[in-house]
Recover the amino acids of this structure.
């Protein structure tokens, strides 16, 4: 299952392509991969994204933000001014305990970005960051164990516990970084109250090569979570995932079959590749 491809999905209210074009203009080396009425896929900062035209049901929020390892003062200043234009500055650019130069911004589309002057030793310069807050603030370590237990090709890259003066239970993690199937994710804890929790507005897509992979990830990720429709699920922490067959893209690109394929998967919870191919 090492070939599984994981990438984030951002839910927009019918302005997904406009958002994708904005992000591709903001980050060097970006490109639109595919555009349809339903979604736009693009690569930016070494990370593949899906921008979904999902309508008004859900929206992105701060429970999952996107941590940008800028690598220079010039780049962090450029992105700070670009992403904050017509957006909101949640933490102004400056020195913090964890970084010589850092900022947290909500851009014009509602997407949250954390900017850090530091570099990262990876082609993936943009790293999704899960915020465990309120009743979940002590669950970072449990989440690491859970996800590394599911994804066989995984490595914990960093664990940073709360300092003693924070008066948290010993060993409670403040920050961690993990690589799952060669995809890096940050996990952060906050002891402060937050008004956002994990929701469908930010999700992760897992493209699966065959039914065995779909069954495996569906069964493991729904343990303690719940199933939804069209390949969507929530895991035990409330994080949303889409477990989809890699062949779906080509099936939906076939004008003669796409309508039948869509009608078939709209009735599914877990995807059934055989039924899609027969549609």
């Amino acid at each position: 299952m090492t070939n599984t491809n994981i990438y984030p999905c951002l839910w927009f209210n019918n302005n997904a392509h406009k958002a994708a074009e904005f992000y591709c203009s903001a980050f060097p080396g970006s490109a639109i991969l595919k555009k349809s009425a339903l979604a736009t896929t693009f690569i930016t900062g070494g990370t593949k994204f899906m921008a979904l035209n999902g309508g008004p049901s859900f929206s992105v929020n701060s429970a999952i933000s996107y941590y940008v390892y800028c690598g220079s003062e010039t780049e962090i200043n450029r992105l700070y001014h670009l992403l904050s234009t017509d957006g909101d500055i949640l933490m102004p650019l400056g020195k913090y305990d964890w970084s010589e130069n850092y900022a947290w911004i909500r851009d014009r589309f509602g997407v949250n970005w954390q900017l850090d002057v530091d570099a990262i030793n990876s082609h993936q310069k943009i790293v999704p960051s899960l915020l465990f807050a309120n009743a979940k603030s002590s669950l970072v370590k449990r989440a690491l164990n859970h996800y590394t237990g599911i994804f066989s090709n995984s490595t914990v890259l960093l664990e940073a516990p709360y300092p003693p003066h924070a008066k948290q239970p010993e060993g409670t993690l403040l920050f961690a970084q993990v690589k799952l199937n060669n995809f890096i994710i940050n996990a952060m804890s906050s002891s402060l109250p937050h008004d956002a929790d994990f929701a469908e507005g930010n999700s992760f897509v897992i493209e699966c090569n065959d039914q065995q992979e779909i069954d495996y990830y569906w069964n493991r990720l729904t343990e303690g979570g719940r199933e939804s429709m069209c390949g969507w699920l929530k895991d035990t922490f409330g994080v949303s995932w889409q477990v989809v067959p890699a062949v779906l893209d080509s099936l939906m690109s076939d004008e003669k079959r796409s309508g039948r394929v869509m009608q078939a998967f709209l009735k599914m919870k877990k995807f059934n590749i055989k039924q899609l191919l027969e549609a």
